[in-house]
Automatic annotation (TrEMBL), chains A, B:
Domain HTH cro/C1-type span(s) in chain numbering: 5-50
Protein name (database record): LacI family transcriptional regulator
InterPro entries: Cro/C1-type_HTH, HTH_LacI, LacI/GalR-like_sensor, Lambda_DNA-bd_dom_sf, Peripla_BP_I
Stretches assigned to the HTH lacI-type domain: 2-56
Gene3D superfamilies hit by this protein: 3.40.50.2300, lambda repressor-like DNA-binding domains (1.10.260.40)
Keywords: DNA-binding, Transcription, Transcription regulation
SUPFAM superfamilies: lambda repressor-like DNA-binding domains, Periplasmic binding protein-like I
Superkingdom: Bacteria
Origin species: Bifidobacterium oedipodis
GO molecular-function terms, A-Z: DNA-binding transcription factor activity; transcription cis-regulatory region binding
Pfam families membership: LacI (PF00356), Peripla_BP_3 (PF13377)
Length: 346, 346
DNA sequence: TTGTAAGCGTTATCAG
DNA sequence: CTGATAACGCTTACAA
């Protein structure tokens, strides 16, 4: 590989001149510039990244920490992951993927060795070790999520307490008093995956305040989920529920929709459906479902922007928290029971 | 950040001693080792990656080039991607993600600047620019796929010509003479995504040789796909077909299975189903489907192993091709029409 | 067993 | 406008 010296020799100038031609940090005669550029092209010269970094040039790499578990919700996962990669690229940063078992160790290694300039933490749990140890990373860190312990990093997330309240209020306002909750993957509950739990608690609290009754259905482990059983139980157990709140992934929810369709149960005329903390966009659904979605594009954008600002501005972002207000997407699957005539809400 | 000099000072030794303690390249007294290790722990010292690299130490990073299109089959995509990341990690390499528009430019940049030690190309098309320009990359490159032009890189893929023959033979041997082909996403055909096209051509050729009739159904664009129409057309158009060969993703195929179930069409008694070049494992299907699957684990493993060997052994792998023989996964969805009594094949 | 010093490929400072 | 050179943090001959 040709180095800067080779270029200098070929162009008949000094190495510093070559460097300055590339960096535009001092004025160079047109003639010299031309000769140098020719030599660069001729030799296919690309500056060595390590040498540049040793001289203080940023390498523009951010680490993306994403645990790979067997039970992840791929669609949602991907939406966040791909969008974060896209935002990074857009800000002219490369992405170094950290997926191993020893997440904390890996992050410490890549930050302390100056391999990366910053860190994004994805798929955050309530007790997230990566976030808890963020103070030991040598570079600014932002978590997409809201872990309990987060002194060392910034946090960007949807305000899931608000999502819970909004969900309860939304249904209450439309006359629903008995709802059934189709829980997310139980693994996520066991792991206390941050948002899943926060939404759940907030929604249940709010429902109780309002005097709504919430029946929980939890067999949403994908491998074991049985839509037939769910629909059966839902309508056999007193048959009081007028609405379903779903945390389940698209495929599971769609099975429920299908099963109801088969049984002649209409949405929203017979039962309303509201999906919360999900990402149904682009999924193949039997019918559109009103949703309080997660917002991968927005969160990824905020996370990367904040991180890049910190990297380039040198300001610390440790401890910062930005909780975004949820936005409900009306898709006509919730019935307004208080409306005259009993027509759908949309 | 503490450097090697700080450690040396704290331990009361020279910098070379610290370096040798870390690298074990010469014997150090127990006492000195202890003092140095203490200082390292005390100061949280981690060697600077750039400085090491400048001295010829490998940085153990491979670039993973994966285009992000709107229409990718996420499940399959992920299986490859996650597995490749896992294999890399397992071989002690970090992964630098390249997802941008200017894939060739990015690969040239990260290889020539010595940022990475090798490159893996994913989601290869028949005319793949990345593979065609592989000779211009400064590091060994392996493509997971089989592009037309591949002089500059190694190729690892399933032998899709064999898959096509196997599919036709498998059904022919079991007495099927009229089959319907549920094509993959049309985008993949338009783009001439390598394997999709190779399978298709090979299967059609073989079917013709055998005198089988193949009816093609191509509305498998996820957004527009209509299982009802498909099943209707399949059984109205003469109703001759005894089997479906599917290239479609799990969700699309499952819709078809559901629609047939609703209509009382039994699998495999009334119609057989064979899925080819897909990755149904872990997908939620109405019933198991016999499959000639892609093999993400195997291909990722082979690709990373080959690449790492080349990096560490210094041997060129340009032009190498490794086509893996397909393995059929029997899951009882294909009926053996030649068997006495007409029972299912499994 | 340990220390000294050269040098990796850049950038920036200081002279011209 | 351009050139020589120190310095970045580390590894590794070469000396002791």
């Amino acid at each position: 590989m040709a180095g800067i010296k080779d270029v200098a020799r070929a162009a008949g100038v000094s190495v510093s001149t070559v460097s300055y031609v590339l960096s535009n940090k001092r004025s160079i005669s047109a003639e010299t510039t031309r000769r140098v550029m020719d030599a660069i092209r001729e030799l296919d010269y690309t500056p060595d990244a390590s040498a540049q970094k040793m001289r203080g040039v940023r390498n523009s790499i951010i680490a993306l920490s994403m645990p790979i578990r067997g039970d992840i919700n791929l669609a949602k996962y991907n939406a966040y992951f791909l969008r974060t990669a896209w935002e990074a690229k857009n800000a002219d940063y490369d992405v170094l993927l950290l997926t191993g078992e020893d997440m904390v160790g890996d992050i410490q290694r890549v930050t302390r060795s100056n391999l990366v300039d910053g860190v994004v933490l994805m798929d955050i749990e309530e007790d997230d070790e990566r976030a808890a140890k963020a103070a030991t990373y040598a570079k600014p860190t932002v978590a997409v999520g809201y872990p309990l312990s987060h002194d060392g990093c910034a946090c960007i997330d949807i305000d899931f307490v608000q999502v819970g309240c909004q969900a309860a209020d939304y249904l209450y306002d439309r006359g629903h008093r008995n709802v059934i909750l189709l829980r997310d993957n139980e693994h996520d509950y066991e792991r206390r995956s941050g948002y899943v739990v926060m939404f759940h608690e907030s929604m249940m609290d709010r429902a109780e305040e309002l005097g709504m009754s919430v029946l929980e259905f939890s067999k949403t482990d994908l491998a074991r989920f049985d839509a037939v059983e769910f629909v059966h139980e839902m309508f056999s157990d007193g048959g009081m529920a007028t609405a379903i709140i779903s945390q389940a992934p698209a495929s599971v929810l769609d099975h429920v929709l299908k099963e109801m369709q088969v049984r002649g149960i209409r949405v929203p005329e017979d039962v309303s459906v509201l999906s919360c903390g999900t990402f149904l966009e682009g999924e193949f659904m039997t019918r559109p479902v009103t949703e309080i979605p997660v917002m991968p594009e927005l969160l990824a954008h905020k996370a990367v922007s904040l991180l890049v600002d910190s990297i380039e501005g040198g300001k610390s972002i440790a401890g910062m928290v930005d909780l975004v207000s949820p936005v409900i997407q009306e898709r006509g699957s919730v019935m307004d029971l208080t409306a005259e005539g009993g027509r759908g809400s949309r």
